[in-house]
């Protein structure tokens, strides 16, 4: 089985990062959490997109280099890999104006290596990941972004990493997971259900 796994919000807790570092950054502008269910910082703190860009200009490199892997993520991914599954890391990370695509790629690979994540392929994709999933014959995608969850789930099962911003993702083919051990349980049940 080919399992697609996102990075930001799936391997990392980007929701927590944005709340913690966003609260620090936007306080300088007298802006505070307005919408904790927002996906982007500008939605959470109700600020202009330009201020959101300033936030990422200041913290993006720090995030790429230091943000922690979710508890048990590498353990479960490596277990799935050892059981014969193919692991495709599919991320919409891109350089913007902060760093080059090459630097972003190198930092991401170094972060995955540091966290001892076994994978078969690392794909830097556009925001819409459905075509990437179909082109690479992904059987199950682990994702957190609401638009991706809703679009991908029209074709393949999606494990939705629980977050405030994706609570409205609850249609067929979406399986909500609350931890990486729960991700493992959901994947095993989908595999079992598919073989019946």
Description:
- Helices cover 45% and strands 13% of the residues.
- The protein has helices at 14-27, 41-44, 49-66, 73-82, 101-114, 130-135, 146-152, 180-195; strands at 2-5, 86-91, 121-124, 140-143, 158-161, 174-177.
- It has a 6-stranded parallel β-sheet, sandwiched between helices.
Produce a short descriptive summary.
The protein has 196 residues and is of the alpha/beta class. Helices cover 45% and strands 13% of the residues. It is built from 8 helices and 6 strands, in the order βααααβαβαβαββα.
Coarse morphology: globular
Q: What share of the residues lie within helices? A: 40-55%
How many DSSP helices? 8
Main beta sheet, described? 6 strands, parallel
Structural class: alpha/beta
The count of DSSP E runs of length 2 or more, i.e. the number of strands, is 6
**Strand and helix order:** EHHHHEHEHEHEEH
Strand content: 5-15%
Q: In angstroms, what is the radius of gyration?
A: 17 Å
State the end-to-end CA separation: 15 Å
Strand line-up of the largest beta sheet: 3-2-1-4-5-6
Query: Runs with pLDDT <50, length 5+?
Result: none
Looking at the chains present, what oligomeric state does this protein adopt?
single chain
Question: Average pLDDT value?
Answer: 94
